[in-house]
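Researcher: Next entry: Histidine--tRNA ligase (Hydrogenophaga taeniospiralis CCUG 15921).
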Amino acid sequence: MAEKLSAVKGMNDIAPPVSAHWEWLEDRLRSLMQRYGYRNVRTPIVEPTALFVRGLGEVTDIVEKEMYSFEDRLNGEQLTLRPENTAGVVRAALEHSMLYDGGKRLYYMGPMFRHERPQRGRYRQFHQFGAEALGFAGPDVDAELIVLACDLWAELGLSGIELEINSLGQPAERLAHRRALIAHLEAHADRLDEDAKRRLHSNPLRILDTKNPAMQEVVNAAPRLMDHLGAESLDHFNRLRALLDAQGIAYRINPRLVRGMDYYNLSVFEFVTTQLGSQGTVCAGGRYDGLFEQIGGKSAPAVGWALGMERILELLKEQGCLPEQPAPDAYAVVPDVAALPQAMTLLRVLRQQGVSVLMHAGGAEGMGSMKSQFKKADASGARFALIFGADELAQGMVSLKPLRAPDTIGAPSTVVAQSLQPLADPSAWGAILRSA
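Model: Predicted structure:
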């Protein structure tokens, strides 16, 4: 016997009934994006490694430790499974001149890959949904994206998600803050852990995001980037705050919020919850006006966010917001294989009319008794059984049997009066199935 193969650690199968929850969430995301005027963009899963090295920053955790990178055996090209998709969307916008006629509002969803320790809501293959507004410079689009996310939480029925915001200013302001930050950290070098010492001169801003309790006092006393912002950066941040205030959106200014990629500037934000343990960030983003130039294009303003699908589904489950599993309108009971050709023809007509029907199957060997078929019909959650029995068919009829009272959908089988319906008029009983 061949060795049994399993999925790669941290890369999970999504099968029924769980996959129905994914479809439900995806449908709501698409619907909300359509109402806000965002259009779908789909980029390759594999991108040039240089896209992420230049876009995310060489000393970020993602580039240094987490990317799945490899050499193409045919031409030696360095390739990477995408660890995030903002850089890929910007690359696509440049390659296809998407901004030639003005700004674009785009969204994407799909798998991303990072080689990290799998834990609750965090996997090596994970799924992101992202919204990107390209070519818009003002804080109004920053606010729009934040409002959009808040509307999403309301539509999904989620609560307890808090918004944190900050401003990273512009490169010159960050450079001045960087000098002050390095000086502060060097003065407390004996209290830095090995990771912080390694980042001290390459990426000191990321030290502020440390989770090491022993370093919190040093980090809390560090110079604040907000104190180094110029008038234009402060104006952008204050106008964003005013727009959020006008919408009644609560937020907390977190001066230590820096985000994990080097491409951010000005507004950054995170939506966080305490209900997922250490993986409390469910959606995050900000402005990245310099990314177009970093990957070889002309300068263009841009802002966006991404959310982790697994984390949102975990939170929906935690708060009891996931919907009931979908059930078919009807289950077709076929006692005799001789009835299959006629039954399948009629069921096809019903499905073309929008009726969901699950047909009992198994051939002559697996059809089972009427009793066993009715057990499966009941277990399916269907509201009706369609019985293609020999007596019914001889009369040119099909038996329509309710399995549940209308007010107890999903409850145990409730037998009420059944009726015979003419085979020649499937639209009549299709209407009954749809309206029940």
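Model: Note for the record: Confidence is low (pLDDT under 50) at residues 407-416.
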